[in-house]
Amino acid sequence: MAKRIGKAVTYLLLTCIGYIYLEPIFQMISRALMSSADVINPSIEWLARNPTLNNFRVAAKVLKIPGSLINSMGFSALLALLQTFVAAMTGYGLSRFRFRGKNFWFVMILLAFILPTALLMIPRLIIFILAQQATGIQFLGTPIPQVLMAVLGQGVNSTILILICWNFFNLVPYSLDEAAMIDGAGPLQTFYHIAVKLSVSTVLIVFLFAFVWNWNETYQTSTFLGGSMDLLPAKLSVFDSQFEGIANAGVGSTSNFKINEAYKMAATLISIAPLLVLYGFVQKQFIQGIENTGITGE
Amino acid sequence: MSQKKKLRKTKSFQRRQDKYGYLFMMPWILGFLVFTLIPFVMTIYLSFTEVKQDIRGFNIAFTGIYNYRQLFLVNTDFTPALVSFLGMIVPYTLVVVIMSFILAMLLNSIVRGKAVYRTIYFLPVVVLSGPVMYQLMNLTPQVEGQVNELYHSFLIRMIQSYSPQAAAAMVSLFDNLSVILWFTGIPIVLFINGLQKINPSLYEAARIDSATSWQLLWKITMPIIRPTALIVTVFTIVQLGGMDTINPVLVMIKERTANTSGGFGYAATISWIYSLIVLLIIGAAFVLFRERKIKETHKYW
Hints:
The complex is a heterodimer of chains A (298) and B (301).
Chain A: H1 2-32, H2 36-39, H3 54-62, H4 67-96, H5 102-114, H6 117-135, H7 144-151, H8 158-171, H9 174-182, H10 187-198, H11 200-216, H12 219-224, H13 232-237, H14 239-251, H15 261-291
Chain B: H1 2-46, E1 49-54, E2 57-62, H2 66-74, H3 78-109, H4 114-127, H5 130-137, H6 146-151, H7 154-162, H8 164-175, H9 177-181, H10 185-196, H11 200-208, H12 213-241, H13 248-258, H14 264-288
Helix pairs in contact in B: 3-8, 3-10, 3-12, 4-10, 7-8, 10-12, 12-14, 13-14
């Protein structure tokens, strides 16, 4: 009996806390549907009296949908692809070869995660400005800096991606590599045909994480890319200031749109919708990906 | 003779390992040198200089500790920003680590519905970003007075009379509880993973010796989970620190960095001091969770 009560309490707690987790999202949905009259009506807490989808229409216009959506997807996918490739290579190198200085580099990989990005931003910026002057190619305001950093394994949360790969490759039996090498495969061929092909699911997880993290990263993006490309999270961060000009211009000067919570929440909801859809499809893989980092001490 | 041959063989083996190992590590090592190590050293150097940019390039003048003196003695924004950063990172990290541990324990104790709850708790990991957090944290409550009630509650007022800062920190903690909990997604999974690796026979043996659940928690679970807790703590500090929505120092650095016409040296000083403090906090976490020596009596369980 006591056991059963304990279990009921556990479920109750989990459900309540689960509600706290989802509350911001419920809030977003509830607010986004409210008309401007509902927003200022204090008697309405959750359910809009005059639900409207107009907020989404206006918010999408301010966020520059679909351009920014396509840009964000393309940009995040490109960076994620490069990051995944480098993470897989580095993870394979760490997992397969007993080269000298390996432990040192492993510690450096962990250290790279701990160092605050803010510490590295100014020199990185200076390096890119100098490179710009030396080569005459425009770096800043283009995706090149972030692409370069992704190619060289210094993208967002690269360390975690490397750890996921490293841990998975540790599980692939070494005899498979040997078999391939006996058949005349070089290290790069072995890497591709054995390690990568066997771990397509892991590589996919790494790609998804990199995609989401690149999507949500705004600090480096705002510094290196600036406003030269419309990206969804960046547009959301300037939503409040851009709202009135764009919204009024689009609908005509007679109507006067005032920014309110409903528009903001509609915009927020739009900006996370692609990620929510993605999560809906592959949530299990996401959770397994973190379980597979192996950083919990084996 | 044969031994010499063998030695040569291991040598060539080692050489091949080195060659292939570094072949695969090359991109990362190169990136680390160019985009992490050199910037790291450069920031420290720049913090003692004044950087001016003109058409010909950068003009770097060594100014000694001028920036530091400016920062601590003249600039009136920095110290308060730093204090409010500390007032954010310490309690927020504590809440995230403790809550994720409790949730992991709860999730580990149930069988049915586990996947559903895990999906809910992990969801924020996917959608959490600075702008989203900003919009959510600045959302005014639909019903007025929800926040005010908290401000005037007895407990908060009691704390306020001792230390207004602590009270403010607590109010912000409760105000933003949902968004703070959003940082627990990955820590929960890490903790569950750690908990599942504990050998159940340890608990069984202790129970036969009539240990209570409380004792099981403190004598078995906690010591074994400590390395995981360290990783979770460090991860949380890094994640929270990187959010400019809740980190005023980051905003300061960002503003100074965006100003390319100069002030890089000063920005470097700010980011260096800030990073030093973050690294000290992480160091403190290491000390807190370090492996403790097993006492003599515990050796022969």
